Backbone:
């Protein structure tokens, strides 16, 4: 749990930095600029994910011949990234036609550079995670976000439009590769052990399938919204609502997968230890994600109109829904580490298939009949199904009841409901301004902590102190 504290603090810092930059960028750029960038980012992230091929999970889980396995995985990853980058460059005109915007051809071709750049440093990144050197891993995340934020802001002020976002993305990936080389010099991989490669691929198939299906569920909506509604401005508004609403699961998925999977893999035979750590992680995550998500839903209108501006008004309603989706997504994050560490990636794969089927069957009707709100509501339904399924499977694997997991959510949920009522009441008495947003935020935070303190009779304070003390000790050890 100390490792979660170390990485969590770093990721909260990067998130804060990124969101401050995003707020300024939305004031400079328009929804149309973000709409073009959203499409490019879908393909950058998808092809980068495919090029990883689940090899990182396979190597971290492996306990023998690790050096050969890492070198083999690094070579496979690099070759795949080159192949996929060429494929995107060639197919860019076809993709642009499918999405319905010829403006996307050149941006998509430039995006192929990012796929190759993202492959550099894979070897060092995997070694750091496998050796539980999470402080160094966190440094790379901070570097990426800091460089992206500074580059995007600078280029936007210079008038580069949507190109400022895309160039900043490539710059952030390049800076990450440089930092990884400084931490532990990497080289262009060139060796493949055929036996180990087959073993890695066999393990990686399920994590890859889960990753690709999950990615499509969370990203193909942007392509569909752009193609069906035919408006880059609407797509940009939808993208911003999606980004802010899902930043919670993105943050905590990063924390738990960065820390918990490698840690669980080293203690995969200790069922009691896994059970205790999982429940603690779920408890601590719920105390952050539930109030943050519900709080964001309450202040969505004030945030969008008061901070981003009236040009983004189409993002208000979908953001209210995505805020709840974000909560549900974050609560499934620890489960992914359990599935991988206990050698049950197939269970995660089956669950992802069920969610994907619901999503893909209903996506087009949702856009036609509900537009942006319809897609957000579809995500909410899929997230509810996914959470129930995931919690049930983890209970089966770790041999406890579903009630044990749900018990971790009672206090934060009850406190968040009270917080939401008080915050909403305060909001009705004020105009939609940045000042009212600040007041509502302070009221929400103070109300939530007061409720939790009363419900736990102060026990939560002691637990928080113990967690931070463990995090400081871990930092000193690193």
Residues:
């Amino acid at each position: 749990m100390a490792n979660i504290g170390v990485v969590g603090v770093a990721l909260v810092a990067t998130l804060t930095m990124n969101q401050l930059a995003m707020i300024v960028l939305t004031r400079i750029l328009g929804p149309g600029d973000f709409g073009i960038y959203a499409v490019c980012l879908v393909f950058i992230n998808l092809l980068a994910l495919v090029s990883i091929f689940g090899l990182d999970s396979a190597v971290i889980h492996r306990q023998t011949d690790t050096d050969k396995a890492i070198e083999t995985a690094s070579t496979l990853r690099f070759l795949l990234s080159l192949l996929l980058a060429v494929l995107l460059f060639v197919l860019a005109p076809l993709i642009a036609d499918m999405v319905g915007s010829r403006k996307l051809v050149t941006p998509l071709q430039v995006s192929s550079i990012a796929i190759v750049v993202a492959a550099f440093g894979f070897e060092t990144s995997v070694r750091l995670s496998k050796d539980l050197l999470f402080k160094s891993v966190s440094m790379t995340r901070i570097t990426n976000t800091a460089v992206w934020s500074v580059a995007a802001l600078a280029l936007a002020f210079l008038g580069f439009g949507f190109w400022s976002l895309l160039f900043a993305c490539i710059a952030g990936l390049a800076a990450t590769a440089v930092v990884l080389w400084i931490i532990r010099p990497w080289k262009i991989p060139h060796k493949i052990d055929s036996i180990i490669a087959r073993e890695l691929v066999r393990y990686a198939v399920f994590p890859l399938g889960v990753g690709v299906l999950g990615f499509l569920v969370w990203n193909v909506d942007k392509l569909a919204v752009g193609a069906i509604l035919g408006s880059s401005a609407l797509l940009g508004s939808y993208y911003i609502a999606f980004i802010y609403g899902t930043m919670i699961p993105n943050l905590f998925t990063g924390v738990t997968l960065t820390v918990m999977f490698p840690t669980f893999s080293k203690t995969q035979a200790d069922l009691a230890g896994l059970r205790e750590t999982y429940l603690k992680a779920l408890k601590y995550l719920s105390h952050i994600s539930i109030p943050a998500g519900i709080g964001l839903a309450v202040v969505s209108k004030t945030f969008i109109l008061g901070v981003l501006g009236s040009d983004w008004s189409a993002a208000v309603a979908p953001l209210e829904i995505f805020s709840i989706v974000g909560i549900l997504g974050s609560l499934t994050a620890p489960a992914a580490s359990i599935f991988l560490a206990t050698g049950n990636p197939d269970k995660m794969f089956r669950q992802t298939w069920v969610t994907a089927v619901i999503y893909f069957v209903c996506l087009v009707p949702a856009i036609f009949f509900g537009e942006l709100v319809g897609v957000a509501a579809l995500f909410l339904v899929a997230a509810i199904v996914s959470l129930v399924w995931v919690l049930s499977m983890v209970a089966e694997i770790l041999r406890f009841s579903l009630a044990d997991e749900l018990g971790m959510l009672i206090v934060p949920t009850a406190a968040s409901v009270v917080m939401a009522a008080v915050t909403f009441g305060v909001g009705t008495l004020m105009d939609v301004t940045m000042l009212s947003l600040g007041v509502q935020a302070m009221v929400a935070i103070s109300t939530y902590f007061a409720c939790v303190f009363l419900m736990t009779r102060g026990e939560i304070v002691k637990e928080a102190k113990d967690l931070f003390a463990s995090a400081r000790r871990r930092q000193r050890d690193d």
Notes: Confidence is low (pLDDT under 50) at residues 1-5. The two ends are 15 Å apart (CA to CA).
